[in-house]
Write a structure and sequence with these properties.
alpha/beta, Glutamine Phosphoribosylpyrophosphate, subunit 1, domain 1, Rossmann fold, 8-stranded antiparallel β-sheet, globular
Length: 604
Amino acid sequence: MCGIVGYLGDKNSKEILLSGLKELEYRGYDSAGIAVLQNGKVDSFKAIGKLVNLEEKTKDYITEDFSIGIGHTRWATHGKPTELNAHPHIGDESYVVHNGIIENYAELKKQLIADGVTFLSQTDTEVIVHQFEKNLKISDSAFEAFRKTISELKGAYATLLVTKGESKTIFFAKNGSPMLVGVNDDNEKYFASSDTPLIGQCSDVNYFEDGDYGYVTPTELAIFTKDDVKKEAIFTKLSTNKLSAQKDGFRFFMEKEIYEQSSVIADTLLGRLYDDEILFDELDDSLFDGINEIKLCACGTSYHSALTATYLFERYAKIKTSVEVASEFRYRQPIMSKDTLFVVISQSGETADTLETLKMAKAAGLKTLVICNVDNSSMVRLADACILTRAGVEKGVASTKAFATQVTVFWMMALYLAKRNNSLSSQEIVKQINLLREVPSIVKVEDEMHERIKRLSKRYLHGHGFFFIGRDVFYPLALEGALKLKEISYLHAEGYPSGEMKHGPIALADPELFTIALLPQHLLYEKAKSNVEELSARDSTICAISSLAFDKADDFIPINECTDYMLEFFEMMIVVQIFSLEISARLGNDVDMPRNLAKSVTVE
């Protein structure tokens, strides 16, 4: 996801900012920019594409003596990847960089426009700098204006702001998005959104907590809590290993990304959940006019999220829904009617088979929608409409947070359509929205659970295969669990609907067949339990995942008791992801780069 750097000191600010941004390239970005304030003058440079483009723009720019600077690599969430939408964003006298999403930006922007402010970009970030300058006119100091501005923001943010009237000060605030500050013996101050830009520059760092805000000067680091209480910085020694710092202390990028699912799902939800309805600013409601059917098309993990969506769309929105494997759909001369909304799903937006099906739908005159993680990708540019999942970059080849955010989008979309179709009561929609609000906390990985799965994994390194089984939405989750295990452990695994066992697959049951049973308390529990008992009677080794203890299970991974089956879905998703990761790690495989696989499949 987006990256932030900042610097206050006597060295070459431009080089420090560019070097810091280069260390954040692994997070992914589509544009970059810097702003340097020196001797009361601000110089700002922005470029789309790779950092080399920004380096070219700044090659003749030199900073000497004391200056302050801020920099940013942007992963688009509001507005296309353009120079105008790139950070830093500018006011009359001030500049800002920001990671995260300002949930109430539309409300703030509307008022600022009414006050006569002209916006240059399509981003949510720009409201921060204009709101600050609005408050500056009625405040006794720049810091008071900054404090007031932060109190008016809703959502997730890590932000740095500089203003000409305070030429030796960087203002900062952190809520929901990571940020830290580093110091060294030369009394310089460095900011970044992760450790890597600071390695080699600082010896000690302070990691900000949610709600922290304040300012730095050459002589002071002032930090305040969300309750406006001044606090002391807590410095820790900085790691010297850059690769380890990129992984934030995790063993693998995949492990880091599993743990990130809480924050990225929060990003997916931001600005889309209201008290009694779901709103997608990026969708024109007319997209659904005349639509009687939805057809979903995808590959791999995205196919599994789409299959999950078929249950939610038909159950909640009462609209006919089907799902297609893109590589098959391309060649079977399908019948496509114009009352069908054609939806493609892809993490990268470049998956070759899926992209070709989108072209087919466009040629047939269908309305099209893409669910994607990468703005300005081929699918996003081609489709009539797009919903971005906001998962950030996924370095592990085996997808985790992309799947989680896709399912989250589909759940929201089902409720959006349910309200439009009057297929759910307003009370039920409110209930579902409140359940969605719980998902970020539901997917936080508990140390005790992870350790339990890690210990258990040593019992599942042999045998002749795995069945992952589940009913309803837990069937696509079973497919996804089996795929994760296949991808990174190279062990044979299959996902099945629980009720299909006795229609053939149960012939394989013996002690060396491992059954991973998804048993949600709130959806078809007794039926799923009966299916697992059939396998147990044939001596299959059973590992049950449930909030309810199951006496026929050889192994049991408990999840927290939830109030709804969709919350159980997300808890079990975490379990099967970690289960696959720990088995792969024990086998000594390359978890992040499994053999024969690529992250983005751009060929047939």
